[in-house]
């Protein structure tokens, strides 16, 4: 025979089924309730210790900061220059996968400040743009050189 609480739970929904099934399996001498913190013998609450994830504990050691040799990105780009807080910041050179090249200032992982952009045309770098960049885009009144 199915216990009464299981028959009732089938009519009220899935979350109630889980709660009632949990209550039915709990030993009769258990003083803990569903969702309550752990209790000690003198009835004080005891929080279970939470282990800090390893990536959080050691991540600060792997951050890029200062001058670096060439860093190869997963998308095929290469960057050589300065980092601050694991982001491109300061002077640097970015070689794109398609052969284009940017040399100049970076801020918050983007081209920002004065820089020069060359375009790869049949294996040769041709100067395309020299001027200001802001948030990864050309910025200000400039003249774009033909490719």
Automatic annotation (TrEMBL):
<feature type="compositionally biased region" description="Polar residues">
    <location>
        <begin position="27"/>
        <end position="40"/>
    </location>
</feature>
<keyword id="KW-0677">Repeat</keyword>
<protein>
    <recommendedName>
        <fullName>MORN repeat-containing protein 3</fullName>
    </recommendedName>
</protein>
<dbReference type="InterPro" id="IPR052472">
    <property type="entry name" value="MORN3"/>
</dbReference>
<feature type="region of interest" description="Disordered">
    <location>
        <begin position="21"/>
        <end position="53"/>
    </location>
</feature>
<dbReference type="InterPro" id="IPR003409">
    <property type="entry name" value="MORN"/>
</dbReference>
<dbReference type="GO" id="GO:0001669">
    <property type="term" value="C:acrosomal vesicle"/>
</dbReference>
<dbReference type="Pfam" id="PF02493">
    <property type="entry name" value="MORN"/>
</dbReference>
<comment type="function">
    <text>Assembles a suppression complex (suppresome) by tethering SIRT1 and MDM2 to regulate composite modifications of p53/TP53. Confers both deacetylation-mediated functional inactivation, by SIRT1, and ubiquitination-dependent degradation, by MDM2, of p53/TP53, promoting a proliferative and cell survival behaviors. May play a role in the regulation of spermatogenesis.</text>
</comment>
<keyword id="KW-0968">Cytoplasmic vesicle</keyword>
């Amino acid at each position: 025979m199915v216990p009464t609480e299981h028959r009732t739970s089938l009519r009220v929904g899935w979350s109630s089924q889980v709660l009632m099934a949990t209550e039915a399996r709990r030993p009769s001498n258990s003083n803990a309730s569903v969702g309550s913190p752990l209790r000690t013998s003198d009835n004080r609450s005891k929080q279970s210790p939470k282990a800090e994830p390893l990536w959080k504990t050691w991540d600060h050691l792997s951050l890029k900061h200062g001058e670096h040799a060439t860093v190869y990105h997963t998308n095929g780009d290469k960057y050589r220059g300065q980092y601050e807080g694991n982001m491109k910041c300061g002077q640097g050179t970015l070689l794109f996968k398609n052969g284009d090249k940017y040399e100049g200032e970076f801020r918050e992982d983007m081209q920002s400040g004065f820089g020069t952009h060359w375009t790869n045309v049949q294996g040769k770098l041709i100067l395309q743009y020299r001027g200001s960049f802001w948030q990864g885009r050309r910025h200000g009144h400039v003249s774009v050189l033909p490719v």
